[in-house]
Amino acid sequence: MGSGYKIFVGKINYKGWAKNKMIYDTIIIGGGPAGLSSAIYSSRARLNTLIIEKAGCGGLIAMTDFLENYPGFESGINGFELTSKMEQQARNFGTKIVYGEVLSIETKETLKKVILADKTYITKTIIVASGSNFKKLGVRGEVEFIGKGVSYCATCDGPFFKNKEVAVIGGGDSALQEALFLTKFVNKVFLVHRRDKFRATQILQERVLGEPKIEVVFDSIVEEITGSEFVEKVKIKNVKSNMVKEIALNGVFIFIGWTPNTNFLTQNKITLDEKGYIVTDDQMKTSMDGIFACGDVRKKILRQVVTAAGDGAVASISAQKHIESD
Ligand SMILES: Cc1cc2nc3c(=O)[nH]c(=O)nc-3n(C[C@H](O)[C@H](O)[C@H](O)COP(=O)(O)OP(=O)(O)OC[C@H]3O[C@@H](n4cnc5c(N)ncnc54)[C@H](O)[C@@H]3O)c2cc1C
């Protein structure tokens, strides 16, 4: 198991497709917590393992200042620090990491081709760990002011708003967590949510409601973001009274949900749910043989680092079993 260099697999001649190419045991698409955990398990089991990551390893949590619910860190840990350790652990066991965006995948008999803009890779199994991305509000001014006051990452951009006023849009864990984080820098946070109560966990709600720098604006949606060079105002509408008001501020941080990163699978017959998340069984198998999925990209009830890491381990074991049975 795990040679990774064979041109012939079983009785099938793959020379045409894989001529002079290394055949990986497993290629992991995405280097967030799910992909890194998969890589640790796969490379420790001596599979020839490659991660392909389009940005930087660490994924979404690497942009988060602080997580306090990952087991083993009783005082919490910075997201980048945690995932840097995961990356180092995967490298220590022999995982290779290359940078580039996977555009599509193809399958032929028992092999799979992973296609980037300027390169292709051949593998026996694929583990999709591509996570999800921020949803956009879709209002006037949002796209125009990205990087000029509109942001999807408080950890990245919060320090630019020292002593300023900002709005955070959303009512889930991410919105409340990031609103609290922003109070370290800003004078005031307007927390705008379209319903009359938050979806976030109780402990975050209690912290937000006890934080004097946060003003909660329930039952309200953003209609427009305006300004000249940078964001200056946000227009919000109360969905119950239909009253529209403008708030003068300097930044708008948007945390309203996620879209799974599954675009590169559109040519394939992998079953997705109605929101585009990959459907797997409890062994992380997708509807395509030899292709597994783990972490936030798959349909599941809890999208967190601890579940991403757990999924990654299971996907790796399933990939190993698949290779052994081939
Ligand atoms: C603001 C915020 C706060 C959070 N706080 C917590 C917390 O306190 N505790 C907690 O447990 N969780 C928290 N989370 C959730 C946590 O970040 C995610 O559950 C976790 O990162 C999921 O890991 P993942 O590996 O599945 O996906 P991701 O972390 O999204 O990683 C996916 C990776 O795949 C890459 N990728 C995507 N498409 C491609 C492609 N086509 N080709 C190559 N690479 C690709 C991406 O660049 C990314 O690096 C938070 C999230 C946010 C946004």
Which percent bin holds the helix content?
A: 10-25%
CATH fourth-tier homologous superfamily of the largest domain: FAD/NAD(P)-binding domain
**Class by alpha and beta content:** alpha/beta
Compute the gyration radius: what is it?
22 Å
Mean pLDDT: 92
Distance between the termini: 11 Å
Bound chemical compounds:
flavin-adenine dinucleotide
Low-confidence stretches: 1-13
Number of helices: 7
Shape: elongated
Architecture overview:
The protein is an alpha/beta fold. It has two domains: 8-133 and 258-325, 3-Layer(bba) Sandwich (FAD/NAD(P)-binding domain), CATH 3.50.50.60; 150-254, FAD/NAD(P)-binding domain (3-Layer(bba) Sandwich). The protein has seven helices and 19 strands. Helix 2 (33-44) packs parallel to helix 3, helix 2 runs parallel beside helix 7 and helix 5 (173-182) runs parallel beside helix 6. It starts with 7 loop residues before the first strand and ends with a helix. The structure holds flavin-adenine dinucleotide (FAD). Flavin-adenine dinucleotide binds at residues 29-35, 52-55, 59-61, 64, 67, 69-70, 101-102, 129-132, 174, 177-178, 261, 264, 295-296, 303-306, 308.
Task: Give me a quick take on this structure.
The protein has 326 residues and is α/β, with parallel strands linked by helices. The protein folds into two domains: 8-133 and 258-325, FAD/NAD(P)-binding domain, CATH 3.50.50; 150-254, FAD/NAD(P)-binding domain, CATH 3.50.50.60.
Descriptive key words:
single chain; disordered N terminus; 326 residues; 27% strand; FAD/NAD(P)-binding domain; binds flavin-adenine dinucleotide
